[in-house]
Each structure stands twice: as C-alpha cells, then as structure tokens.
Design brief:
The structure holds two protein chains of two kinds.
Chain A (H helix, E strand, L loop, with lengths): L3 H25 L15 H8 L1 H35 L3 H11 L2 H15 L6 H25 L4 H8 L4 H29 L3 H6 L7 H9 L5 H24 L1 H5 L3
Helix pairs in contact in A: 1-11, 2-11, 3-6, 3-8, 3-10, 4-6, 6-8, 7-8, 8-11
Chain B lengths: L3 E10 L2 E11 L4 E5 L6 H9 L6 E6 L2 E2 L10 E4 L11 H11 L4 H14 L15 H13 L5 E5 L7 H18 L2 E6 L2 H7 L2 E6 L2 E6 L1 H6 L4 H6 L4 E10 L4 E5 L3 E5 L10 E6 L5 E3 L8 E12 L3 E8 L4 E7 L14 E6 L5 E3 L2
Parallel strand pairs in B: 3-8, 3-9, 6-7, 7-8
Antiparallel strand pairs in B: 1-2, 1-4, 4-5, 9-10, 11-12, 11-14, 12-13, 14-20, 15-19, 16-17, 16-19, 17-18
Helix pairs in contact in B: 2-3, 2-4, 3-4
The chains are: A mainly alpha, B alpha+beta.
Chain lengths: 257, 360
C-alpha cells in the first residue's frame, strides 16, 4: 500500500465494526461470570445454553418464525416485485415499499392495534409471524424489482414467442434470471426476522418469546456470558447463510445483481 | 391465398395512431420488408403479427385464419428481436432447443433439431457457449437458428442487423438471403435502413406515420417512387418544381421555372397544367464538358461542390437559374478522386426516359 493514512483509516473502520463482535465471541469462551477480565477458556456457557429450556424454546420460535416469515415474504415479495416492474403502476410500489421506510415502532404499534381491535386476534406466534411477513415483503420486492430493472424485456417476450405459456415463461426464464435477487431477498428477510426486536415486542404478547426478546429480558438482570454464547451462535448462523448464499449466487451478495 | 393478410389494421396509443388502416398481404416464401423512419409504426405492426399487441381495428389472417384470440405462444410465428433476446442463463444449444421442448418434442428429436439448426447458421462449435461468450454476429445467428428451428410459418425480424458494424452487416445480409432461400420460411423484415431493404427484399412497403406510402419490388420502388416522401427516403434524389406543359402517350413535356423544358416519361393520368415535382437520381444525371454530352435534357452550370466517397464522387452543380443538381460519377480512373473542380463549367444531361414526375 502506497498510502499509509488510508491503511490506518481502514484499520480503524474495521476495528470499529468488528472489535465488538470479536469481544462478544471471546467472552463467550471466558471462564468467568463477569465480562470483565479474561480468566481462561471454557465451553461451559454453551453447555448452560443447551440446558436452558427457555432459551432453547425462544431460539426455536425465532427459527420457526424466521423460516416461515421469510418463505412467505419471499413468495409474496417476488410477486409484488414482478408486478411493480411489469405493470408500471403508481400506487403499488408505494403500498409495498412504505412499510420498509416506516419507523419500526410505528409499525409495531399499528399492528398491535390492528390485531387486537380489528382482527380480535390473541397475540402469539401467529401475530408475530404476520407482522414479520408484513415488513419483509417490501425488502424482497425492492430487491427483485432492482434485479428486473436492468433486464431486456424482450427476453420474456421471446419465451412466449417461442411457445412458452405464461407459467412456463416464469418457471424457465423469469425465475432463473431473478433467482439471485430472490435468494438475496429471502436471506435479507430471514436475517431481518430473526433479529427483529421492536415489532416482535409489540406483537408477541406475553406467551411467546423470540431470541431477541429472550436476550433482552436476560440482560435486564445482567449481561452474562450465556448471552455472549447465544449471540455468537446467532452470528455464526447469519455468517453461514451469507457464505451459502454467496456460493449459490455471488452477485446477490454484492448487491449489484 | 396469401400466407399473411393484414386487413385494415389500426392500432392507437391514446389519441395517436401508431398504425392506421393498413392493409397488405405477404405470399408464402416471400422476403417482405417494412421500411420506414423510426416511429412510422413498422415495429408496432410486427408486434401485432407476433401477438404481443392486439389491433384496435382490422384483422390479421394467417393461412386465411384470423389470429385474433390466439396468444403469441400459440401462433406459428417467431420473432428475431433487435436485441436478439437470447436467454442469458442457457447455452446456445439450450436456447435453440427451447422452441422444440415447448412444442413437446422427444429428447432425441430435440437433439437432432438443434444440431441441424446449428449447422444451418455455421455455429456447430458454439453449442455449449453461453450468449455472453459470443460476438454480435454469432448472437444474431443463434437468434435466427432459434427462430427457425421449428420451421414457423412466418419469421418476423425486427431490425436484426441494427447492432452490427457495417462490414458484418453486409456479410449477414448475404447470409440472410441464402438462409431464407434454403429454409423456405417466409420473412417479414423491419428496418429503417433503405439500402438493407433494397438488398434483401422481394417486396418493400414504405411506411410513414402509420400508413403505407408505397409497396413494390426494390427496383420499382427505387426507380418509380410514388411521392416525394418515398423518393427522398430511398436513396438520394434531385427534385425540381415543375408544371406539365404537354402530356402525350409518348412523353411528358415539363417546364421548370427558370430552367426550361424537361422531357420525362409519361405516368398514367397526368394532364397538362398540373403542377408537381420532377425527380431524378444523381446516378442518372450525366456530367461532362460542354461538347461530350449528347442527350435531350441538357443544362449548363457550374460545379460548386463535390463529395468523394471512394467508388464514386458526387458533384453539386449550380444551374444557370440557381437550381442545384447532384450528379454522380464512378471513379473509373485509378488514383483520380474527381474529374471536375469547383468553378468548372459543365453540362448536366439525362435521358428522356429517365426521371419521374410526382404530383404529391
């Protein structure tokens, strides 16, 4: 590197971004109750974690909601993205994308009121699921539409011209071409869902806890290494997904697909 | 019965008529071209034949059967798009196989069909390449092979050579003629390049603002344009305002203001006293020194400009009354770029059966 200052600056930036994460990971292996000083290596906190019934249930809830919500949001969001692209409607993009720009707290409160006062729904897994799908659709739609935006429209016409029905055109041409965007959208929806706190907080009610809610209730008492351990696992899961997605479609991760 | 019949077809976008009351028919085996400037409605017409758009009025018949209500995917008509529209995630072979698979052909038939189609466009060695690995000319050929593989009744080509450079374009033109002859499929070709239309087509329809201005074989269109638009759009042409002095079966006597008398071939139904234009192509105008031109329509003038483009040089001559006329001369002498200089006194002349009277 020719420019020394550029080096220094980038080291600072990366340190700022990743040092907190490294500390979380490191202290999850620390053989001490406190996040204060390094005592020694242990897997004790992971063992505690595995025996923590509440935590496991919360993790399971989170995974279940994240998988289902991202799955459904991906299907609906992809459909919305294609519709926005194809029909050039003015109102549709506004309707689909507004939840993305809306403050989470607003969305949380309004969904809560909607569930209780309009739908008369008992808060629980279902209400959280619907809420997550609601805010994920917009993200998927934006990514899918961006993927379609640069594409030559005549490719889809060519498919029909060569005898493909609309469904065959979608399955054999449109979907393979937008797949990187769909995967990126699904990945985004999954990560947004699994770490969402604000909206979940409003829509979960008393019975259901997701991982973020569980972690929050734990650190109200104290930040234990167990929290570090669960955070580390969550981080590994996200990282693993990014690696997998980058294998499937490299351009989806770069975001310039 | 004609293979394709277009009957009084109209297509509007809001108040604007992209195609208005157009009728024509295309015979089986024909290479038919829709020629016109951008926005003349030629692509809209093509898209209606393909089934991507529906006419607001009129009928499109293929083999005598109205295509209205038949979606694009069920029409035995394929399109070669201007952008080629190859499927980027499929290999060349898969692109070509697409049509056969959609038609429900057996895997073995598909394989043989793809092989034959690749041979037709000389791309046997590119079967496993992806479109982004091909040159423009190769993509063009894949698009052609894909459109022809299932032998459609009609192949529509939307400015397919537009993206190629001049040299390659000429090569592809020759290849396109050969290919059409070999496969025997009827081509409807859309272009704004008049030279391309002249080189390729059996028949050309010149379009302007949603109408067909004239429909004829290339040589007829070039030599006998119906009106000033067609005359001007196809090649270069000299136009003089004239009045018909005498119209007989043998010839037309015209007077051009300040220039004198012009003898022209007689078109049908022209009467003495009519006004219009006399049109003559630069290559039909002979240019020479005073003594060496012996033709009936003779005028003297001064060379005021010239343009050397290699094979020929175009001279701009100002006649005695101030009218400008262009004359074209082949550069037959090696190393010589022009035979006349600016300021030279010359005679321009043309045969009494050359040129053309236009009343609109």
């Amino acid at each position: 590197m020719r420019n020394k200052w550029l080096w220094v600056a980038s080291v600072f930036v990366y340190a700022f971004l990743y040092l907190p994460l490294v500390i979380v990971i490191a202290y999850s292996f620390n053989d001490s109750r406190l996040n204060a000083e390094w005592v020694g290596f242990t897997l004790h906190w992971y063992q505690v974690l595995l025996n923590d019934e509440q935590m496991l249930r919360a993790a399971l809830n989170s995974l279940l909601i994240a998988c289902t919500a991202s799955g459904i949001a991906t299907v609906l969001g992809t459909m919305a993205g294609i519709a926005i692209h194809r029909y050039k409607l003015k109102l549709l993009p506004v309707l689909v994308i507004t939840p993305v720009a809306m403050p989470e707290i607003l969305l949380g409160v309004s969904l809560l009121l909607f569930f209780i006062q309009v739908l008369n729904l008992t808060l629980g897994m279902l209400s959280v699921l619907i809420a997550h799908i609601t805010f994920c659709i917009g993200f998927v739609a934006i990514i899918v539409r961006a993927r379609l935006a640069g594409m030559d429209e005549s490719i889809f016409e060519a498919a029909r011209d060569l005898g493909a029905t609309p469904w065959q055109t979608f399955r054999l041409v449109t979907l393979p071409l937008i797949l990187p965007g769909v995967i990126a959208g699904a990945l985004m929806a999954f990560t947004l869902s699994i770490d969402d706190f604000v909206i979940t907080f409003f829509t979960a009610g008393v019975g259901v806890a997701t991982l973020p809610l569980q972690i929050y209730s734990m650190i109200k008492i104290a930040v234990t290494p167990e929290v570090n351990a669960v955070s580390t696992l969550l981080m590994m899961l996200t990282l693993g997904m990014i690696v997998i997605a980058s294998r499937i479609s490299p351009e989806a991760i770069k975001g310039n697909a | 019965m004609a293979l394709l019949q277009i009957e009084n077809v109209t297509r509007r976008y809001g108040a604007l008529a992209a195609v208005e009351d157009v009728s024509f028919s295309v015979e089986a085996g024909e290479f038919f071209t829709l020629l016109g400037p951008s926005g003349c409605g030629k692509t809209t017409l093509l898209r209606m034949i393909a089934g991507f758009e529906a006419p607001d009025a009129g009928r499109i018949l293929l083999d005598g059967i109205d295509l209205a209500g038949t979606p694009a995917e069920r029409r035995p008509v394929h399109t070669v798009f201007q952008s080629y529209a190859l499927f980027p995630h499929m290999t060349v072979a898969e692109n070509i196989a697409f049509r056969l698979k959609m038609a429900g052909k057996e895997p073995q038939t598909v394989k043989v069909g793809v092989k034959e189609a690749l041979a037709e466009v000389h791309l046997e060695d590119k079967a496993d390449c992806f479109p982004h690995e091909l040159s423009g000319g190769q993509k063009q050929r894949v698009a052609l092979a894909r459109g022809l593989v299932n032998r459609p009744r009609l192949l529509l080509l939307d400015e397919p050579l537009g993206a190629l450079d001049a040299k390659l374009r000429q090569e592809m033109q020759i290849e396109l003629i050969k290919l059409q002859k070999n496969v025997g499929v009827t081509f409807v070709f859309v272009t704004h390049a008049q030279q391309e239309a002249l080189a390729l087509s059996h028949r050309i329809a010149v379009m302007r603002e949603g109408h067909i201005e004239q429909m004829a074989e290339p040589a007829k269109l070039y030599s006998f344009p119906h009106n000033r638009f067609v005359a001007d759009f196809i090649g270069h042409i000299n136009l003089f305002e004239v009045i018909v002095k005498e119209a007989t079966t043998g010839h037309l006597r015209l007077t051009a203001s300040g220039l004198g008398e012009i003898i022209a071939p007689p078109p049908d139904g022209v009467k003495a006293g009519e006004s219009g234009w006399f049109a003559i192509r630069p290559e039909q105008v002979c240019i020479g020194q005073r003594h060496d031109v012996e033709l009936k329509n003779r005028f003297t003038g001064t060379v005021c400009d010239y343009l050397y483009i290699g094979d020929v040089t175009t001279y701009k001559v100002e006649l005695e009354n101030g009218t400008l006329i262009e004359a074209l001369m082949a550069n037959s002498e090696p190393g010589r770029a022009r035979f006349f200089e600016v300021g030279d006194e010359v005679t321009v002349a043309w045969r009494h059966d050359a040129g053309h009277f236009l009343d609109e």
